[in-house]
Records
---
Amino acid sequence: MVWAICRPDLSVTLLDSARKKCDALSVMAAELRLDNVCVIWERCETHSLAARESYAFASARALAHAGVVAEYLSPLVKIGGRLAAFKGPKGVMELDEVGNKWRRLGLSTPLVLLYTLHEEARDYSLVAWEKENNCPTDYPRRPGVAPSRKWWKQTGGEAS
């Protein structure tokens, strides 16, 4: 929503699987007269089927493990676009867990910007990837699979 307010020249799509959140976002966008906002009530995995590699940028906040976030967002972003994830204190550890396997989703090695909130003693991070190649059509997998079957721990081309 902040991007839509600060950059009225951009078209901003807000996607969430929770209907109540989408309803609230729709009301906020209407009250703020943000004509550049489209709210979609749908899971990322499903939306990727209709909007595959059509966005210039996609981001997520406090969604899931960095590898899962990458699986959800990479299919949405076109080559040359960017992905970003706001991560908590475990963000760097999650990136280390995936290692150098990001290319499997068509992504660059992530860039990490660390920051500390003054109110808390914990480090947070903003993780950014560039979309370098098409994401294999095996991704994202059907709803609910990504968190339990980590693609970066699978061998070969398995993406079930």
---
Amino acid sequence: MKPSLFFRIASVLLLLFAIGHTLGFRSPDPQWGVDSLVTSMHSIHFNVQGFDRTFWDLYTAAGFYVGVFLLFSAILAWQLGSLAPQNLAPLRLTAWAFALVFVVLTILSSRYLFAIPVVFCSLIALCLILAAGLSHKQSS
């Protein structure tokens, strides 16, 4: 198998993850019973470095940051999957670092989040590990 296949699979998973996260992170499930918390996050204002902000603003920014990171990761995975083996070889450290990031995100998701991000991060990490390993074998 070629590393490009696993980079491309990771890219599609990352794009789906980015879309799902961006569309869903600001919509808590009513069954969670966090309406009063969300209302507080919207209504309590404070001043940070001359800017009037709420915790909802900070939460929203963090959520969009994650969405942008996932979208960038999808593009990076697609680009890595487009490279010829001889052009991918000098990026071996990048490919392994990319895989390691998603291994760590899988661990963090398992500890602090729930099934959907755990599954996405696990599958993405697996694809990136396989791609990095195969790119090493192809260039040897």
---
Amino acid sequence: MLPVDPARTAVLVMDYQQDVVTHFVPVEDEMLQRAARVLERTRAAGIPVIYVVTHFRPTHPEIVPDRGLFRSLRAANQLVEGTPGAAVHSAVAPVPGDVVVTKKRVGAFSGSDLEYILRAFGRTHLVLFGVATSGVVLSTVRAAADLDYDMQIIADCCADRDEEVHRVLIGKIFKSMAPAVSADEFVAALDRLDTASPGE
């Protein structure tokens, strides 16, 4: 676990939306509870929590109807801004003071203003998790690595339809760019901030 510097760290919560975690990649309650604990402790440490969500306008004008990765969302009328399915799951919902960033494609930086937010906050260390590991997490890690961010992934707050794909990404592909930590390890690192002596 990299030392957590509250002045340069941000936590990204990605695609924890109702349609995603109940239909696309069903997520167990235990994972939602872990994520909620991470977010609660992050806020208590004064570290920004940034939600990254996928939202489309009614009728999905942003999506080509007959080709591309997102055509199935258009056909199913999913992730329309303002609908229950597009909302962040209630177990990990944003609270006042959190930032919500909207994207139109897979990666957190794709069609969003995330880079502007991070720059304005002076954040260079990203601790991130999301659904799915092979989707938003993969795309975001690769983009953030190109932008020279330090990163870590909270592995047990990520999930994928294919458990083997999740395992290989976390254990091998991401290792050099965004080493994995557990929710407990990250919370413990935040707890150490409370016990550190001034100047440490």
